[in-house]
């Protein structure tokens, strides 16, 4: 159950940092994992927040690219970003070499509500590159003695990301549309949904998140979704990421990207 208020995260200090690329690893198909580090300890960040990355030497990329925080390795002082190379900007990021410098604005937005009661059962549902923030959330839960259940979906087994890492922090359930791994179908078809959960957190393609939120709403389960609206400034100034909600139009980059589904119009 949601037990703490994330609104205080809006006051978290923002940093503009030149971070050094430590490594770039292709983790399957068009997906790459960037590990960044700095000379000073990285600032605190919470699961669900994101980074605005400046893409240099890309003539077709004028705006920063918003990327979810995949993981924060405090011991190694590493920030992990999971990138899907689908445009000029993200392809440029995926082609970077160790030693390159990325200018980042971070941490931005509000994250997921983190449970404080180990007796609560949480289901973290992700699809595609949308699984990225759920790894960090699961890691933080495990660090606090809470074991989550992950429900991860993809088109096929080759599109599944970081499964070995997810398995370190909790139970992993999988669906693939072609049935090559796990149960065949979409995440909302998985048999784990016959179990009772106290809260659901989801991130991924909008149709998937809408389906998950509708399931949660009908089941009476608290649910938060990390929206992936197009974001340019990351600070609520450009208004390109506005989402219609029960409270009017909200800037996803500032009021979100994580929102309780009760504020969204998906179940109406």
Your description of this structure?
The protein contains five helices and 15 strands. It is α/β, with parallel strands linked by helices and 268 residues long. It has helices at 88-94, 132-143, 163-166, 206-219, 252-255, and strands at residues 15-28, 31-37, 50-53, 65-73, 78-84, 101-108, 122-127, 149-154, 171-176, 183-184, 199-203, 222-226, 242-245, 248-251, 258-260. The longest helix has 14 residues, at 206-219. 15% of the residues lie in helices and 34% in strands. The strands form three sheets. The protein has a seven-stranded mixed β-sheet, with helices on both faces.
Order of strands in the sheet with the most strands? 10-9-8-7-11-12-15
Whole-number mean pLDDT: 92
Determine the structural class based on helices, strands and strand pairing. Answer: alpha/beta
Envelope shape: globular
Rg computed from alpha carbons, rounded to a whole number of angstroms: 18 Å
Give the topology string: H per helix, E per strand.
Answer: EEEEEHEEHEHEEEHEEEHE
pLDDT < 50 stretches = 1-10
Task: Report the sheet-strand fraction.
Answer: 25-35%
Number of helices in the DSSP assignment: 5
Helix content, binned percent = 10-25%
Instruction: Give the tally of β-strands.
Output: 15
Biggest beta sheet attributes: 7 strands, mixed
Distance between the termini: 22 Å
Features:
single chain; six-stranded antiparallel beta barrel; 15 strands; 15% helix; 34% strand; globular; disordered N terminus
Question: Summarize this, please?
Answer:
By secondary structure, the chain is an alpha/beta fold. It has helices at 88-94, 132-143, 163-166, 206-219, 252-255, and strands at 15-28, 31-37, 50-53, 65-73, 78-84, 101-108, 122-127, 149-154, 171-176, 183-184, 199-203, 222-226, 242-245, 248-251, 258-260. The longest helix has 14 residues, at 206-219.
